[in-house]
Amino acid sequence: MGEKSQGLGRELEGRDPEVETSWTEAMRTGKPFRDDHGTLVYPTAKSRPQPAVRMDPFHRGLLASSVAVAVLVSVYTLLQIPSMSEEVPVRWGFSGDVTYGSPATMVWPVLGLLVGTLGCAVLARYPRIYNYPRELNERNVQRQYRNGAQLMVWTTASLAMTTLGMALPAITGAETAALTLVGVGMLMLSSGYFIWKMLTLK
């Protein structure tokens, strides 16, 4: 009995108080736990470590320029609405047909895209709080952070491009939705690519 007590005491002394031994306890306490292979696993956002990765210069530049474009285009468009013609291009059909409408109808779409763009830009700084499609562990967590942040950067850029594509026809009167289609294409391709990377980072 004494030997068992001593053995249990040594086991408790060697246990890391910040790491749980089961998934159930980890979910209850918000701490990481070690799985059967000895790998440290983070089952909740609270249990995850702080990001130790920095955004590379390209993605920092893309994020900053996307925010600048979205803000400048949105502000300029809203200021130009009173001086626009009575009807401007506001919608395009799949067949290429253009629907015209009042410039006032631009207000809410422009503001909505601006809020979405700025929101994604802010989220790009906090990859620790994202929902990930794979289990985060000590081997992949920082790579998942980097990948998730880059996804938010490209989402920001896509929304900024969509804003530009929607605003230019209303400002210039040009009957083209090319830049809007580019923005939507960027969003779909980048989302597919980065989600695929999330699924493959073990």
Short account of what is shown:
The chain has 202 residues and is mainly α. Helices cover 57% and strands 8% of the residues.
Structural commentary:
It is a single chain. The protein folds into 2 domains: 1-47, no CATH class; 50-200, no CATH class. It is built from 6 helices and 5 strands; from the N terminus they run ααββαββαβαα. The protein has helices spanning 2-14, 23-29, 57-80, 107-123, 141-172, 178-200, and strands spanning 33-34, 40-42, 88-92, 98-101, 136-137. The protein has a 3-stranded antiparallel beta sheet. Strands 3-4 form a two-stranded antiparallel ribbon. Strand 1 and strand 2 (40-42) form a beta hairpin. The two termini are 43 Å apart. Residues 1-23 are annotated as: Disordered. Keywords: Membrane, Transmembrane, Transmembrane helix.
